[in-house]
């Protein structure tokens, strides 16, 4: 449990959660999510597609019981990074989006990414988390570094130039220990 509150994560319901997600992904602060012009139906369709995908999963993160962030995990052997790097056994890909707010709490986003990483590493089969944020997303690069990610190289994805970065369980534990 963080000093900021309690985080829990549940599977996303693409239809019930679509309106909430639509507000989040079309907000100006979610520009790097690349859904600024999405209609509600577009969001429903995208998350129905993810729900039906064997190797891609979406979750709603709750802070003290209230929706606060979106988390996606995927198998990079089949989704997002196919042909862009050499996957290793135990790799899992991750995206996260913190809900926009008019009342930001200092340290909240870092607490969210920490909760996301804890959730991913709760699976003993996960050895390394892989991310591919936009090279221009300096805020997320700093957050990733704070929880142990190390950038490897820039890669070209169809929708963006991305910074391929990795975080092993040991790197995450070391970063978490350093921040206490």
TrEMBL record:
InterPro entries: Acyl_CoA_acyltransferase, Acyltransferase_MbtK/IucB-like, GNAT_dom. Keywords: Acyltransferase, Antibiotic resistance, Transferase. SMART domains: AlcB. Pathway: Siderophore biosynthesis; mycobactin biosynthesis. Pfam families: Acetyltransf_8. Residues 7-170 form the N-acetyltransferase domain. Gene3D superfamilies: 3.40.630.30. GO terms for molecular function: acyltransferase activity. Acyltransferase required for the direct transfer of medium- to long-chain fatty acyl moieties from a carrier protein (MbtL) on to the epsilon-amino group of lysine residue in the mycobactin core. This is Lysine N-acyltransferase MbtK. It comes from Streptomyces althioticus subsp. attaecolombicae.
């Amino acid at each position: 449990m963080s000093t900021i509150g309690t985080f829990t994560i549940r599977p996303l319901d693409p239809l019930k959660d679509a309106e909430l997600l639509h507000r989040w992904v079309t907000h100006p602060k979610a520009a790097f999510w690349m859904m600024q012009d999405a209609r509600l139906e577009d969001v429903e369709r995208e998350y129905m597609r993810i729900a039906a995908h064997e190797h891609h999963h979406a979750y709603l993160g709750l802070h003290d019981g209230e929706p606060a962030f979106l988390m996606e995990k995927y198998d990079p052997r089949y989704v997002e990074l196919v042909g862009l790097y050499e996957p290793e056994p135990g790799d899992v890909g991750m995206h996260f989006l913190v809900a926009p707010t008019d009342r930001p709490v200092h340290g909240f986003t870092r607490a969210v990414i920490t909760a996301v990483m804890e959730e991913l590493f709760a699976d003993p089969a996960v050895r390394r988390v892989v991310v591919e944020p936009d090279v221009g997303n300096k805020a997320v690069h700093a957050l990733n570094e704070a929880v142990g990610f190390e950038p490897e190289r820039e890669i070209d994805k169809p929708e963006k130039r991305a910074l391929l970065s990795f975080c092993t369980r040991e790197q995450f534990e070391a970063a978490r220990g350093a921040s206490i």
